[in-house]
Amino acid sequence: MTAPGEKESVSSDFVRSYVITGGRSLPSSDDLALHTLVTLAPERTPPLGAGPEVTAIWDLCAGGYLSVAEVAGHLGLPVGVARLLLTDLSEQGHLLHRAEPPRAQNVDRATLEKVLHGLQSLIS
Q1: Cα–Cα distance between 56 and 75 in angstroms, integer?
Q2: Who has the most CB within 10 Å: 19, 29, 102, 108?
Q3: Which Pfam families does its entry note (predicted)?
C-alpha cells in the first residue's frame, strides 16, 4: 500500500508482461488450458522478428510435448502471457496441441495382488 501523497509504483513484472503481449488482452482459458500439451509442428521455421520469449518457446517445444503450465514455468512468465504467445504460434501453424492424456484408472486390490504374485513367481 502507498501512503497518502506517495506515488504508486508499477511493478516491472506488470510492465514486462504488457510489453511482451503488446497490450493485447489474454486469451480465455478455454483456448489453451494449463494441462494442454503443445509441441512444434514439423518442418517449421521460427517466425521472422520473433522476440526472445517466442525463441525460448521454440527451443522448449522442439524437444517434444510440454504442457502450457510447464512452458510458462520454464520461461518464468505468467501463465496468461505464455498462453497468449502459444495461441499466436498455434494460430500461425507453428504449434500442434492436444488434450492432456487421460487420468490413470484405479485398479482393484485383487488384480494388483495377482500381478505381484505373478512377478514373485518369476523371481523364485
Answers
A1: 7
A2: 29
A3: DUF742 (PF05331)
